[in-house]
Amino acid sequence: MKALLPTLLVLALLLVTASEARAAKCWSRQDQGSTLQVFHVYSPCSPLRPPHAAASWEESVLQMQAEDKVRLQYLSSLAVAGKSVVPIASGRQIVQSPTYIVRAKIGTPPQAFLLALDTSNDAAWIPCDGCLGCSSTVFSPLKSTSYKPLPCSAAQCKQVPNPTCDGSACGFNLTYGGSSIAADLTQDTLTLATDPVPAYTFGCIKKATGTSVPPQGLLGLGRGPLSLLSQTQSLYQSTFSYCLPSFKALNFSGSLRLGPIGQPKRIKYTPLLKNPRRSSLYYVILRGIKVGRRTVDIPPSALAFNPTTGAGTVIDSGTVFTRLVAPAYTAVRDEFRRRMGKAALSSLGGFDTCYSVPIVVPTLTFMFEGMNVTLPQDNFLIHSSAGSLTCLAMAAAPENVNSVLNVIANMQQQNHRVLFDLPNSRLGVARETCS
Ligand SMILES: *[C@@H]1O[C@H](CO)[C@@H](O)[C@H](O)[C@H]1NC(C)=O
Ligand SMILES: *[C@@H]1O[C@H](CO)[C@@H](O)[C@H](O)[C@H]1NC(C)=O
Ligand SMILES: *[C@@H]1O[C@H](CO)[C@@H](O)[C@H](O)[C@H]1NC(C)=O
């Protein structure tokens, strides 16, 4: 393995260079109206593709799973009111950031960025000129005629976490995954597809530590005060949907559709719940889970919504593999194992239910309030690169976090249209092949 590493690194670098050339081609299609192309960050179309992604599919999957742990810790720290969970860095250096990116422009004339989509965050932030610890793609406020820093007296300055006041300029500090950032609170024109949003409030990052910060910034699609939805209420009416491409088809893009126009009519809905203490998270009611046609036995307390403890189920775009609290995961997993009978069980990284023979469970159904979503195998089985091992692509919530939160993650959402309809407090899901 040690001898292989240099070779892999060289290979990774070559692939990165080739991918940069390819990336230009992928993004050449213009984003139309209020619909944006969405790429997986590991896609050959993504210039942000981390070098390790090139090593092997198996490595990438295990890497994504390791990153998920940091994400889960982070989400739990958002969800568990009054408790701040300190993110725990894993043994090795990891590059953790949400999984899907879109193209956006900021300023006049516009400067282009690939922003990570994050439905569990509100504010947008972008690395700015002079930033310590940021990547090389930064926003230059001096080159924009519409840029404006916000004063401490601005109303928005009360909506950021840990506001700071430096002279008269408003700023904020926050932790994100395993990183911390310090930013100025600023405004400029944000252009999404062909829609300009004047005076968009975002964080201009001046300092970043750790490796969780998406290299070119983040677009918060949460539901709290500074999110895209809150800042574009008249334009998009707090409505958006996405279809995330499968990471088995990395060349393909999905889409992010903003606003009520063009959203699917034939779609099933479940109510969206609000947790006033954690306003950015999208909570839903998960009533049960079926493995094939059998409803597994999950104690109701494992699925119950509790705004005080933060317990319940959230839909998240940034976690890769669904995590269930231990009693729920164990029930699902045990049913898989029961179905597999005497077939030899093995594990791969953090996946504990893997087989070298085909898994006989054809579907998995999430039973949400008012909506059953039946997933095909592509949404819950992961195959190792050699094709020799197939694993149930879910896990129990990490043990070192306050495990009360079930997270429906992006692998389980791929090739589905997921519609966030806030005016009607509901979440829609329909199958759609977008890759
Ligand atoms: C915010 O972060 C900056 C840069 O790391 C630091 O100098 C400052 O003390 C922090 N402020 C607060 C209030 O934590
Ligand atoms: C992705 O695109 C590249 C070139 O653009 C091509 O070589 C490769 O075969 C494609 N992969 C898939 C899975 O379609
Ligand atoms: C979901 O499936 C369960 C079990 O099969 C069934 O009882 C329930 O009525 C279904 N719910 C909806 C909304 O179709």
TrEMBL record:
<dbReference type="InterPro" id="IPR032799">
    <property type="entry name" value="TAXi_C"/>
</dbReference>
<feature type="domain" description="Peptidase A1">
    <location>
        <begin position="100"/>
        <end position="430"/>
    </location>
</feature>
<dbReference type="InterPro" id="IPR001461">
    <property type="entry name" value="Aspartic_peptidase_A1"/>
</dbReference>
<dbReference type="Pfam" id="PF14541">
    <property type="entry name" value="TAXi_C"/>
</dbReference>
<dbReference type="InterPro" id="IPR021109">
    <property type="entry name" value="Peptidase_aspartic_dom_sf"/>
</dbReference>
<protein>
    <submittedName>
        <fullName>Aspartic proteinase nepenthesin-1</fullName>
    </submittedName>
</protein>
<dbReference type="InterPro" id="IPR032861">
    <property type="entry name" value="TAXi_N"/>
</dbReference>
<keyword id="KW-0732">Signal</keyword>
<dbReference type="InterPro" id="IPR033121">
    <property type="entry name" value="PEPTIDASE_A1"/>
</dbReference>
<keyword id="KW-0645">Protease</keyword>
<keyword id="KW-1015">Disulfide bond</keyword>
<keyword id="KW-0378">Hydrolase</keyword>
<feature type="active site">
    <location>
        <position position="316"/>
    </location>
</feature>
<feature type="active site">
    <location>
        <position position="118"/>
    </location>
</feature>
<dbReference type="Pfam" id="PF14543">
    <property type="entry name" value="TAXi_N"/>
</dbReference>
<keyword id="KW-0325">Glycoprotein</keyword>
<comment type="similarity">
    <text>Belongs to the peptidase A1 family.</text>
</comment>
<dbReference type="GO" id="GO:0006508">
    <property type="term" value="P:proteolysis"/>
</dbReference>
<keyword id="KW-0064">Aspartyl protease</keyword>
<dbReference type="GO" id="GO:0004190">
    <property type="term" value="F:aspartic-type endopeptidase activity"/>
</dbReference>
<feature type="signal peptide">
    <location>
        <begin position="1"/>
        <end position="23"/>
    </location>
</feature>
